[in-house]
Design goal:
The chain has 158 residues and is an alpha+beta fold. The protein has two domains: 31 residues, no CATH class; 87 residues, no CATH class. It is 38% helix and 14% strand.
Length: 158
Amino acid sequence: MVTNDNGIADRLLKNNDLYNSMKGDWKRTAMNKGNNIKVTTGRQDGKFYITREQTNTEAIKQHVKEYRAFAEAGLPDPLAPLMPDGKLGYKWMELPTVISIRISDQYFGGMPWNAIKTDRTLKAQFYRVVQQEYPEYVCYPGGKLPIPVAVSYPTRTG
């Protein structure tokens, strides 16, 4: 119900120009602050969509390849986390933002990585997906992550 008492929402509902401009097909493209992710939002045939393209994925793959080669040669990483035995470990993965969003959309109902990593089981499932579907982004020597929890592979939701 449109009244004059509901503030901005009513004004937006009364704005026919805005409604008509959003009703048809449209598209908007923007770059993120780092200028490496192009996000396109829009509406086509009555359905809203968001597409993301990351421009530095090849550079990330090359970095991971070099890191894994150094790790397999036994060179320590001074910035790596400590392992349970107290020794320096290795970084587990270097995942592009667009791929982490894709994984969270397909397997975790859109839950972002920052929320997934707070739960031990979800985090282990996320690592399993990365290891299985995106092995080119696994930094750990040998390409197999030492996942400490035995979890089932998550099912696709979307």
